[in-house]
Design a protein that fits this description.
The complex is a heterodimer of chains A (about 300) and B (about 250). Chain A contains eight helices and 16 strands. Chain A is of the alpha/beta class. Classes of the chains: A alpha/beta (about 300), B alpha/beta (about 250). At the A-B interface, helix 3, helix 4, strand 5, strand 7 and strand 8 of A face helix 3, helix 4, strand 7, strand 8 and strand 9 of B.
């Protein structure tokens, strides 16, 4: 067996979910090759070579891989796919975008968002917003898999760096053109990589009021998240959203403030190690998943919390 | 230009899902069903483009049991022009769905296909991308904005750190994300009108498509429940617990 992991990176570094994806691949058994495709991304390839369990890194550097354009990345993966039994990527915006293209062109039924590896052909994946776990077995020759990074511990650094080989680019498909990104600028850690997350819901009341959460987050070195209700109300941008339709997170500490706990939000955070809920409604469903819960007005509790630290 | 939209019939997202006692699947008997929320957004987008004079005809497609006709009628009541049901009682996995849609696209020749980014039952998030691949078309997945610009579409996409701008050549497949629009409610007069709109029923065999499932579901189960939590009296106690008991701060 041979496994190809497609790395997500920003040119310099690997994105947080990649080492977890390598750890998931290791459970499938077989030699692991990591593909780093992009433009001017050799530092990311060097980083991939140091991840424990990685046997080889393929580096493909060409301008038409900028922004991870799905048509081009999929064509590149297909050019080497026949050498592997498993093709694996993180189930992030990057992986979800191009992997189904790879699967369809290999005539394989992708297995999305796996949370456990039972056997080389058998995987567990959450369905119905994580309210149900399905164990599925694939009969496809090449298995195409996306990985829920938070379900696997990250692979550490290996003893010696794996060799990095250059891979010739596939032609530019010319179907889609990447025009640029508008990334939210923040000094705080990324949501999916943060050790602590402070999240706000509809109870925050306004964008202005999120400042008290930000103050708490900065004291804790935490990322700031939000429920879909807070995003829909326009308090914060969509990339703050934690939940079934947003990001799936599992930090060591998740502090939910003014969040009632809709199923769709719980789906995104209920695997966090310790959950704290602060809400003035003593009936809020969020309390059912919380390790510690405080019934209090958030506008009193949050500044107090910040002052206590 | 003609647009094809897809609609999936799913368990209502506000209904608590129950696992069958034998672990073979999820209970769907006597459970409230509805149109997948992301499909609603796809239908709404097509209608808005028709209202803006960009789109001439909207064809809605559903795949599944006979009851999917209801879901199609909802799409017609929202404003789609006609419906096609690919009727089957078999389990349809995303690859099979994409193959069926490819056959429909070959017949209908739309210039744009808009699908929901994901169905809230199996949470696969694959069909649109697979369809684009099988057709050899570009894709714009997780769209929060679409502007047609001659023979191409400028799409704003939701990515993990913010937004991305992408230009795709037409024909293309777009998958709808949450913020693309807010779907309208259907009104009674439109529900009545929708009853008169054409709805064609075809079988997968007639399309010459192999729809056999590739994934075998061995079992389904509920995830482990979290233990009962502790109510704290005030912030002081909370901070003390986090420091000394949970040791996370």
């Amino acid at each position: 067996m041979a496994i190809l992991v497609i790395a997500e990176h920003d040119g310099k570094q690997l994105k947080p979910g990649v080492t977890n994806t390598v750890a998931a691949a290791a459970k499938m058994g077989g030699d692991i090759t990591v593909l780093v495709a992009g433009h001017q991304c050799s530092s990311a390839a060097q980083a991939a070579a140091k991840v424990a369990g990685v046997k080889k890194v393929l580096l493909c550097d060409a301008p038409h891989y900028t922004g991870g354009v799905a048509e081009n990345v999929a064509a590149l993966v297909l050019s080497v796919a026949e050498q592997y039994t498993h093709i694996v990527a993180p189930a992030t915006g990057f992986g979800k975008n191009f992997m189904p293209r790879v699967a369809a062109l290999l005539d394989a039924q992708q297995i999305s968002d796996i949370s456990a590896v039972e056997a080389p052909d058998t995987f567990v994946r959450p369905i119905y917003a994580g309210n149900v776990l399905a164990t599925v077995q694939s009969s496809d020759r090449i298995k195409v898999i996306t990985v829920r990074a938070t379900a696997f511990d990250a692979a550490g650094e290996g003893g010696s760096a794996a060799p990095v080989e250059n891979l010739a680019p596939a032609p530019d498909a010319g179907l889609a053109q990447f025009k640029g990104q508008e990334l939210s600028k923040s000094e705080r850690p990324e949501l999916t990589a943060a050790r602590i997350i402070v999240s706000g819901g509809r109870g925050m009341g306004s964008a202005e009021n999120f400042k008290i959460l930000e103050a708490l987050a900065d004291k804790l070195g935490a990322a700031v998240g939000a429920s879909r209700a807070a995003v829909d109300s326009g308090f914060v941008p969509n990339d703050y959203q934690v939940g079934q339709t947003g990001k799936i997170v599992a930090p060591e500490l998740y502090i939910a403030v003014g969040i009632s706990g809709a199923i769709q939000h719980l789906a995104g955070m209920k695997d966090s190690k310790v959950i704290v809920a602060i809400n003035k409604d003593s009936e809020a469903p969020i309390f059912a998943v919380a390790n510690y819960w405080l019934v209090e007005d958030l506008f009193k509790a949050v500044p107090e919390f910040t002052a206590e630290l | 230009m003609k647009v094809l939209v897809t609609v999936k019939r799913v368990i209502d997202p506000y209904v608590k899902v129950r696992v069958k006692s034998d672990g073979s699947g999820v209970e769907t008997a006597n459970v409230k069903m509805t149109m997948n929320p992301f499909c609603e957004i796809a239908v709404e987008q097509a209608i808005r483009m028709k209202e803006a004079g960009i789109v001439s005809e909207i064809v809605a497609v559903s795949i599944g049991a006979q009851q999917c006709q209801e879901t199609l009628r909802t799409a017609l009541a929202m404003g789609a022009d006609r419906g096609i049901l690919v009727e089957t009682g078999a389990e349809m996995q995303p690859l099979a769905v994409a193959k069926v849609l490819k056959a429909i696209v070959a017949k209908e020749q739309p210039k744009l296909v808009i699908v929901g980014k994901q169905a809230i039952d199996d949470d696969s998030n694959q069909t649109g991308q697979m369809l684009a691949a099988l057709l050899g078309w570009p894709q714009a997945a997780f769209a929060s904005g679409i502007a047609i610009n001659g023979e191409s579409a400028d799409v704003t996409r939701e990515i993990d750190g913010g937004l991305e701008k992408l230009t795709v050549k037409l024909p293309a497949v777009v998958t709808a994300d949450l913020r693309l629009n807010e779907p309208r409610y259907v009104t009674l007069p439109n529900i009545m009108k929708a009853k008169k709109k054409p709805l064609e029923v075809v079988k997968p065999d007639a399309l010459g498509v192999d729809v056999a499932p590739r994934l075998k579901t061995l079992k389904v189960q509920e995830p482990p429940q979290r233990g009962a939590g502790v109510k704290v009296a005030d912030v002081k106690e909370l901070v003390a617990k986090l420091k000394n008991e949970a040791r996370v701060i």
